[in-house]
Amino acid sequence: MKINQALSRPIAISVVAAGMLATFSFMHGALGGTAAPIQQTAVHRTDTSAAQARAAAPAVAPATAPAPIVPRGRVYLFRGALGPIFSTGMDRLAEKIVRAGFPADTYEFTVCPMVASHAISQYREDPQPIILIGHSMGGRCALEFSEKLQEEGIPVSLVVTIDPAHLSPSVPTNVERFINIFLSKTVLGGGDIKPVAGFPGHYASYDLGKHDEVLHITIDKMDSVHEQVIAKIMELSATPAKTGDEVAPLRYVVPPKEPIELWDSGTVIAARPGDTLQTIAQQYQLPLWSLTQLNPVPDNAPLVPGQRIVVPRHLAPAAAVASGR
After folding, report:
1. What pLDDT score was predicted for residue 136?
2. What is the reported pLDDT for 68?
3. pTM of the prediction?
4. C-beta pairs of 255-261 under 8 Å, 24+ apart in sequence
5. Rounded to an integer, what distance in angstroms lies between the CA atom of residue 273 and that of residue 154?
6. Alpha carbons 188 and 290: distance in angstroms, whole number
7. How far apart, in whole angstroms, are the C-alpha atoms of residue 141 and residue 187?
8. Of 58, 90, 130, 297, which is least packed with CB atoms within 10 Å of its CB?
9. pLDDT for 91-114, tens place per residue?
């Protein structure tokens, strides 16, 4: 029996909770993913006179347009415990990713080893960027998945963990880009994931503990986070992980009522004469808190010329960087 057929069947599980017996079924998609819709090309008839008129017209050289980014990658999403009830945000995100043109499937964290083994086989046959996204226990699964790929010498292009479980593994060195969005005050998730020693990739951690409107069972359903993750996936194949500059980790406690912006990592700049954190925030169009949390100096104090200052940044496709974006 093929693995995708085996994993597609409902798995009936009886759970005893608070003295009551509830039965539910875990369902998840086939490993093959949902293919992007095929674009149909319409063929139009043209009368003879119109064709002759076009032939007589002087040829105009077409404008040179940048080559479009070709979607590449496989996305694996994992729900937490009681996923079909509490981790439905992973299903919604998967649907959006598929509409963006990428194969994406959502699984229960309990089948993590089986899915990882199949992903290794797929990668051997057709190497493509691997993206792992998980909520709660699914976040822990995404990190264990990454460790299994590391044992096989396979890189992971992007890992996003959303309020992962406590006691989750650290980020292994084969992960090129890692983002953790968590609630430090919750016991259901609250995993403050850190990289292993010598981690060379891009790392960003966002603690939403001061956002009282966000709960463990809603953090996976935030549309603004979905949109940013999808944008990163769409540019991933054209965005080199090696930036050529110093990469600094980001660790933020996002202030209340501030929008959640998912920077990829930090980089180091040298202060110029007259610079303060306030002037740098204005120059780079950053919220001031994003600099004061990274750099322990008063926001209006003059900086020493040449002083190292960490600023957050978004990674961009090589073509966009070359054109001065």
Report:
1. 98
2. 57
3. 0.79
4. 255/210, 255/289, 256/210, 256/211, 256/212, 257/211, 258/287, 258/289, 259/224, 260/181, 260/206, 260/208, 260/211, 260/222, 260/224, 260/225, 261/228, 261/287, 261/290
5. 45
6. 27
7. 18
8. 58
9. 999 999 999 999 999 999 999 999
**Two tokens, residue 59:** 């040829």
- Strand partners of residue 162: 135, 181
What is the distance, to the nearest Å, from the Cα of residue 237 to the centroid of all Cα atoms in its chain? 13
Tokens of 100: 């963006």
Instruction: Return d(Cα 180, Cα 164) in angstroms, integer.
Output: 8
Pairing of strands 247-248, 265-270: antiparallel
**Could you tell me the two tokens for 178?**
């890692």
177-182 and 265-270 as β-strands: parallel, antiparallel, unpaired? unpaired
8 A C-beta contact, residue 276 and residue 288: no
**At CA 87, angle to CA 223 and CA 140, rounded to 5?**
105
Residue type, 32: G
